[in-house]
Please model this.
Amino acid sequence: MSVDIDTVRRVAHLARIKVGDDEAERLTGELNAILGFVEQLDAVDVTGVEPMTAAVETALRRRVDVVSDGEVPQKVLANAPESDDSFFVVPKVVE
Amino acid sequence: MSALTDLTLAEARDALASRKVSAAEITEAYLGAIEASDLNAFIEVTADRAREMAKASDARLAAGEGGALEGVPLGIKDLFCTEGVRTTAGSRIIGNFVPQYESTVTANLWRAGAVLLGKLNLDEFAMGSSNETSAYGPVKNPWNKELVPGGSSGGSAAAVAGRLCVAATGTDTGGSIRQPAALTGTVGMKPTYGRCSRWGIVAFASSLDQAGPITRTVRDAAIMLREMASIDDKDSTSVDLPVPNYEAALEAGVKGKRIGVPKEYRVDPMPEALETLWQKGVEWLRAAGAEVVPVSLPHTQYALPAYYIVAPAEASSNLARYDGVRYGARVDADDIVGMYEATRAAGFGAEVKRRILIGTYVLSAGYYDAYYLRAQKVRTLIKRDFEAVFDEGIDALLTPTAPGPAFAIGGKPDPVEMYLNDIFTVPVNMAGLPGISVPAGLSDDGLPLGLQLIGRPFDEAGLLSLARALEEASGALTPPGF
Model:
């Protein structure tokens, strides 16, 4: 399978990365090289094989359902490009 | 060059504990070496904090209350969040991110008394095998400053080899500890998935990422790993297994151990020096009393292509958080989607963008089954290959670490060619196993080459004792002029 420049533009939009025309052109070639490389997986017989979900089999631990952290809004906001009181500020979302 | 910076971690620890040298002295020696260095190994040097921590260590040592790493100056890969110290992940998009919390691994190290010298350079978001994707410039290899140190933990490996810190932390998603260790003549260990907590480490591919040490000797790796490893309530994949005293188990010997040599771990053409060295490794382990047998891991060749589906897929999800809202540099636009797109276009470098796009593509509607699901099935087959040889009584596997020695900065412009650097290390991450690279000899051009040992899950102690036997036979490698 290979991608065309329109697919690259669509995927870039899904990933929320703006790409210019030259960049989209270049990325089309690079992505196709990578997709060509991974194509060899088609040769593997995976009939009846379960997909791996965890590298090491372990039962998920449970903890007591209590509040163990929080109440630190200023720390949470400390690195925000723009904040106001206890809120992150973003461009207008609802008209 | 000051002799203090030539001490191994074990030697420095013992000299500090017996008060032959103070933490302040050894810290100053390293700060001086860093200032005089042009390797670009550090993104940020924390001289003031280092001096404060050293002073506190000296007080604890004087009171007889020193921890296992009391006063030992370390470098930390700039992927570990350090409270109050800028953490960049090698990227512009995080801007001047100053974590409000400490990663579990580094918190463990400070609790043991270690001193923070600074944050080490790396490929952007740990995506790379040469340290050239860093937004903070490439790192130079202390063996030859025109060459890369490998990556992604390139700053860590260069700093340890170049005597800019006693030891360093690294992270390894597909070879990012072991490959740079091999290219700089240092020891690099990726523990079993789950041995070290991932909490507070900037995430790349969460099912593959694991922290580990880069050091000058195998003993130093054993000492570091014991302090880095822990169970952690904040990482549900960290394991509830006791952390052994790896150092005490180092001289356990390799008599009677069964070592497998996988026939699939080859590249075409195979560099002659690498072939010779691999054979030497076999002879060294045999001479030390191990039994070495050929084995087969039939799905080896599919590990790298499967990795280049799984890792970018997880990365595209993990890196979705860099949206210009919660942290980092924001590029303003008319609406919120425009702001996201402009912020991420300006903040991410070319390799990171490539991987996010591949990941987004293989997870997108209509392609998930053909790519991602298939890759996860192949991953099961890769893991089964390893389980089959371990079930036959093989204790560990011996392979080369990387397909060749360090290469020129700018020498591998093709992404897929760059990916091939990790051909021998990626299968280990795919199966979640522990692996260690040991400096084993020199190439025809006099550059370091490493051998990799791969072990059973959570048998880091056994692996380290095998690595120790290899190291004893091969001898340590020191860059010319150091």
Notes: The first helix of chain A runs from residue 5 to 14. Chain A has a mean pLDDT of 93. The CA atoms of residues 1 and 35 of chain A lie 7 Å apart.
